[in-house]
Amino acid sequence: MENEDHKEPERIKSKKRREFDRDDGFGDWGGYMAAKRAKLLDQFKGSEIPRLSNIFEGVAIHVNGLTRPPIDELKNLMAAHGGVFHMYQVSSTTHIIASNLPNVKIKHLGTTPIVKPSWITESINYGKLLDYRRYLLYTNQSKTQPKIDFPIIEKNNNQEVAEPTNKAATKTASDPNFLEEFYNNSRLHLISTLGAEFKHLVGQMREKSDGIFVGKQKLLALKTNSNLLLIQNTVIMHIDMDCFFVSVSLRKRPDLKGKPVAITHARNGQLTNVKPDQKANREQEFSLYSERLPIGVTSRVDKIDTNSSLSEIASCSYEARQCGIKNGMFLGQAVKLCPELKTLPYDFEGIKSVSHSLYEIIASYTLDIEAVSCDEMYVDVTNILKETGLSVEEWATYIRNEIMNATQCPCSTGFGANRLQARLATKKAKPAGQYYLKSDDIESYMVEIKLSDLPGVGRATLGKLQKMGLNTCGDLQLVSLKTLQTELGQKLGENLKEQCVGIDNRPLNFHHERKSVSAEVNYGIRFKTIEECYNFLQNLSVEVFNRMNDINMRARCLTLKLLVRASEAPMETAKFLGHGICDSLSKSTTSNIVFNNPQIIFKESKILYEKLNPLFSDLRGVGLQLTKLEKNAPINSMLSKFLKQSNSKESVQIEEKLNISNIKQKNIKQSNSKYIQIEEKEDTQTSIISNIKQKIVSKNINGSKLKNKNNNNSGSISNYFEKTKSAENNPKSKQNRQLHQQIDMDVLNELPEDIRKEIMREYNLQEAVKPEGKKRKSQKQKCGKQSNQKIDSEKYLDVDTIQKYPFKNLTWDQIKPIIKKWMESDENPYEFDIEMIAEHFKQLAIDRKIEVLPKMFSYLHRNFSALNCIWHEAYFKIVNITQEGMVARYGGTLLVQRQFECCKM
């Protein structure tokens, strides 16, 4: 054998020398070094150092070079606090600990973060794993790769420091970017936003539906049984995702399934290093909180001590609920009930994704959906059951499996003859089950239902019922209606009396209509100056306007809500930057202002704030609510046409110069009668042609508009004539004369008659091109109270046909021709046109631009006098709305004409 081995080629010998000897005792472990590393790791894990905490759970360090504390001490610290120590750097090493390294070593260490040893010691001192980025010795950042400054979020484990150092950098409402960050991390904002979004989405889908449901067609194709069940009664399905936030987060942490889990911003339930003054503030706040509760209502802070975390649990698993933990409970109280409770952060993107999948699945079968929230809905499945022939149980199993397969999140379904029965059936079905509450079982089923399970029974109502000795629906059934109404009120008493026997006459709401839009913040409100307060109020105005604008609404009422620190409450709240014990203040606008832009919202909210006059440093919560919502009505077809032509860059160019002379200084005087009178002298000489700031843009033969090739020249009609006349002597005059075939007749028809005739002469236009049917109708008539005419509010064009604020950048000389054509084109004015003009006049008053208002009203009164009484009513409405702006800005009204021959205000 030896001779044969010597005869082998040299390359084979070399290859064999590189191979591991399977008999060396280390072959199964990848060789000597792998075995050595494994042995060292086993020795580390088998050390007798007592476990003090799990701060470094998931962390594996390798120490490189001389450090302080030394390597042996770091090794012992990792063993005592749940970490792993590697004598050699391996692929599973998460951090390298070093105090100083040469550049050549840094390059060879790869991308593993190199951290100072103080990261270990300070994390232990604070009782939690601090962010290593604060302790980086070196970074892998190159000069050509700019650094992205992500916010550093500390990772908590078993304990939380009462006042960690990073809290000093926590943003408050004084920060310009606070609102965006607050809403991006607010679970309540996410829930409310998604709920409103799905309610709106269901309505849109119903309006645009073609009646074809892909899911139902697929289900019909799978159905083999031709025997259809006769469904006689209505069947309502209630779907509720089980422990929704927990289920979504567990998709990324399947190892925690079956364990007590809670979703919260914090990671622990106990605080350390709480200072004496902080304890005193907590005790004082808890005492005040208990004193303010209604009689019979248990305080949430009864079992909370001064070291307990006040972070609220948004959702908890059923394993956690078995320990007594509930949604909304403080984390400090929860960890006392369940020390092994695991906490997970919110997965906002996952929540959005699962919610959309849920609604898409149900909408593929029916659109008889009432959206409740992002994880809950009511569905009328009567038609589905009739058309498919499925039983309630078969349908429940089928749809639950489809939702589970698509989202990896379980849900429960309840069925009944109305929404109340369906909801109560879901409670019995949970977790991950289904239940059909049949009509024959309702009476016996309702007897054992707790009163707290009925909709509309909150803590205060429940306290009153328990004071009466009532705990279940069975107890409530024995009480007379009169007794209930005496204790709870007529409406609530009647509702509860019906609900306790399973009666609920409320139909499903498929077309949800928003009643209000609001934006409220009760965290981080700490203002140091009044300017910070107003800046935040301005940002909040933009936020609430954007929300209203997203649903194409405008509002008629604004309410400012404030939380002001109670006089007996401590300055520092128990919860960091929370609102604490507060008094609630609110005030609403009384004038009929249309809130359709953020500037108006801010101005009015500032006025409301000044009326309430709280101390800005005591503010702990600020909210804006818009009510009396109405759709942004489409625009009148005729007026929108004129506005579009006036504002379009392709059809009209407006110059800023005005050839107006002899304008004398205007004086604003306020009379004793609270009327503000503006005196001015009329212009003595104004050229019609020089004052017109519109240019006709020609159209080509096929109807497309030609671009103006002389952009540097004046856009006035007179200059346009001069260019045309000089061109007649040019060899190309024949081509220029053909332009009359391309003139935009709509724009031409809007010009005054003398200007129109002059242009027609220039281009040899025939009289036939005069506007037909556009002659001013003789509308002067006695209006009388017997007139049946009304302002027309039906004929509308879509609001997108004009700019959002069409008059904003126009002068009165530019607006006047538009109003003139509006009066000539319609027999009766449209409601939205009147409001649009009135709001522009009102805004001029608010912006202190009132010198032009008398001229405007004089023009309107003079022209409206020749029209019928419907136009007179329109004039009065414009006056009233404008006066609101005058009163708000000056405290008095404008002196204008207030009557016609036939009527007066």
Description:
A hairpin with a 4-residue loop joins strand 22 and strand 23 (675-679). The chain starts with a helix and ends in an 11-residue tail after the last strand. It is α/β, with parallel strands linked by helices and 905 residues long. The strands form seven sheets. It has a five-stranded mixed sheet. It is found in: Nucleus.
Strand arrangement in the largest pleated sheet: 2-1-3-4-5
Average of per-residue pLDDT values: 75
Amino-to-carboxy terminus distance? 125 Å
Strand content: 5-15%
Q: Total number of helical segments? A: 34
CATH topology of the domain at 48-166: Rossmann fold
What is the radius of gyration computed over CA atoms, rounded to a whole number of angstroms? Answer: 38 Å
What is the architecture of the domain at 48-166 at the second tier of CATH? 3-Layer(aba) Sandwich
CATH class of the domain at 48-166: Alpha Beta
- The percentage helix is 40-55%
Under CATH, the homologous superfamily of the domain at 48-166 reads: BRCT domain
Q: Unreliable stretches, pLDDT < 50, 5 or more residues?
A: 1-9, 12-30, 141-169, 648-675, 677-741, 766-782, 784-788, 792-804
Q: In terms of structural class, how would the helical and strand content be classed?
A: alpha/beta
Q: Give the overall form.
A: globular
Number of strands: 24
Largest sheet geometry? 5 strands, mixed
Pfam families: BRCT, IMS, IMS_C, IMS_HHH_1, REV1_C
Protein name: DNA repair protein REV1
Family: Belongs to the DNA polymerase type-Y family.
Domain BRCT: 51-137
